Amino acid sequence: IRCWSNIPFITVPLSRAHGKSFAHRSELKHAKRIVVKLGSAVVTRGDECGLALGRLASIVEQVSMLQNQGREMMIVTSGAVAFGKQRLRHEILLSQSVRQALHSGQSQLKDMAIPVLEARACAAAGQSGLMALYEAMFTQYSICAAQILVTNLDFHDEQKRRNLNGTLHELLRMNIVPIINTNDAVVPPPEPNSDLQGVNVISVKDNDSLAARLAVEMKTDLLIVLSDVEGLFDNPPGSDDAKLIDIFYPGDQQSVTFGTKSRVGMGGMEAKVKAALWALQGGTSVVIANGTHPKISGHVITDIVEGKKVGTFFSEVKPAGPTVEQQAEMARAGGRTLAALQPEQRAEIIYRLADLLTDQREEILLANKKDLEEAENKGRLALPLLKRLSLSTSKLNSLAIGLRQIAASSQDSVGRVIRRTRIAKDLDLEQVTVPIGVLLVIFESRPDCLPQVSALAIASGNGLLLKGGKEAAHSNQILHRLTQEALCIHGVRDAVQLVNTREEVEDLCRLDKLIDLIIPRGSSQLVRNIQKAAKGIPVMGHSEGICHVYVDTDASVEKVTRIIRDSKCEYPAACNALETLLIHRDLLRTPLFDQIIDMLRVEQVKIHAGPKFASYLTFSPSEVKSLRTEYGDLECCIEVVDSVQEAIEHIHKYGSSHTDVIITENEKTAEFFLQHVDSACVFWNASTRFSDGYRFGLGAEVGISTSRIHARGPVGIEGLLTTKWLLRGDNHVVSDFSEHGSMKYLHESLPLPQRNAN
């Protein structure tokens, strides 16, 4: 706790030795001293008729939040010249309109010319109003702000430099936010660009260079430069080939083409980059980002400090491998080559991968052992997750069998004709299957998922990005290496990529121009987080697996306990495990009911009573907190229903549309249940655990989808395909089919080509 003016505030212990910039975005959360530079386009409105008050208020709120965390915040603000220009234009227009109205009449108002305004006069007129606004806003957060105006001469005079340095340190010590600007009312015109040649020389001729000079002078950890573009692009923003550069390294300037400067500021992107590189050489990390976008400006500064993928991050440490954007582009190119292979060639790749899983099992199991030992030593994984992490010889053998099933069933998956129509004479239309594009599969604690998903992507001709949990890093590395070894036999090694960089899942979900479909494999919380984070990319999956088993009055005594035991106890952490047991009211206090309860007790399943079930009991188990609970353990809820119709209504109200089962010998009741339950998988007298791609004969699955469009249930090869239309004509034009045209539509269905019987 530190105190100033008898007002205590809490500080967060944030410190590091200055002298070297942060190497990765994830380290930015350790930044203690931060400079935020606001460009003129950020401070002023788009119509240049005043300040962007809402945007400024949001920036002040974020700076205040970080200041109250114990960080030392400084603001370098532009906007005085632009704000003063707007004020002076308004005054000139007002005075001219009054004079002309008095002497010339209203008709000449439209011919008024606004004189060219001198920048120094604009700065003098705008500076006081701009600072007054900042003071009023920071006061709302009980934070004091102080104004400092500097010129280039202040940095070249040693005494003035020491005075400035001392003033800033004293303000920061007192928890005051310094607001710095060039004193544009007295600054000389900018000189030719003769500086920026070394760490010790930089002229302050705009607020970009001022922010860089100040950041190095004050040994700042982070400089955030906010402008009206998302960051640094390899070509001028808005051009067809422009791509946002996520990380910029010294020496990359030759790969960038700069455009024009900001609409109201003094510097352009080239000035920002030069200033940023100078600050980086001085030991300060830099991020250039958009401070004007309405969807992100409200949290852009805090997002940057949290290490999120916003704007362009300047780093001196170049990673050994490709960026995730480059990996996605490699996967797309590789996927297109993969889709162009013959079906037999794709099958050969999968057969080769299956062989490698068994041939290299010793190496795979050794890598998996390292993961298990590290997880146990750190104690960060629960027992069910450790079980998922573990590989064994039998698991690898099962994987190999599943992969061979995929290879055998993939012969006519891509390019299969599913509809043929004769539109008119010599004009035939076909609908054929094609890959979706680039898949991003995010999985945790399940290294066996990697070869399964890879095989499905290969069979369907899709490019694949894989993001595994760090708890399975060693296993994933060897399995991915074997996958690429198999792909090499037909020259498509890059089609499957494993993301090894420090990319956060949330950042991956924003790559909407590079990724076509996200498939999460893991906990319901992981799926929910990805569904929330995905920006414009469809997500295939289910957030919960609340599976029901309904025991009807006509249920077989022999079948009930077997199916319930298997559904709940065989693998309670699975998404297709039983979570709620619905029992017909007439079965209460019967031998069958007693057998169910006894079996659950023997299996050590904790029972939670639903509201209706609890009302029938004098001494009931603990009443369930919610009927929408996925336990993922040896726990389940028991509830009572009066009929099959009530069971269906309960499932629709509290279920997750995953897998639901009826146990009965009454075929009519069973068919009613099968037809009316609106879930991805609906079973009669079978365990919920059959809801699985391997058990369905799909070879494997990328996941189970509860979505109502595209794929639903266990998703195999078919769920990773979409379609395109092929029209073959001979000089056909639409005008020939008009009322007086020479041709007529036939729309005849044509027979489909014979599918491969193998």
TrEMBL record:
Pfam families: AA_kinase, Aldedh. It is found in: Mitochondrion matrix. It catalyses: L-glutamate + ATP = L-glutamyl 5-phosphate + ADP; L-glutamate 5-semialdehyde + phosphate + NADP(+) = L-glutamyl 5-phosphate + NADPH + H(+). GO terms for molecular function: ATP binding; glutamate 5-kinase activity; glutamate-5-semialdehyde dehydrogenase activity. Its EC number is 1.2.1.41, 2.7.2.11. InterPro entries: AceGlu_kinase-like_sf, Ald_DH/histidinol_DH, Ald_DH_C, Ald_DH_N, Aldehyde_DH_dom, Asp/Glu/Uridylate_kinase, G-glutamylP_reductase_CS, G5K_ProBA. Gene3D superfamilies: Acetylglutamate kinase-like, Aldehyde Dehydrogenase, Chain A, domain 1, Aldehyde Dehydrogenase, Chain A, domain 2. GO terms for biological process: L-proline biosynthetic process. Residues 323-588 form the Aldehyde dehydrogenase domain. NCBIfam families: P5CS, PRK00197.1, proA, proB. In the N-terminal section; belongs to the glutamate 5-kinase family. In the C-terminal section; belongs to the gamma-glutamyl phosphate reductase family. Can form homodimers/multimers. This is Delta-1-pyrroline-5-carboxylate synthase.
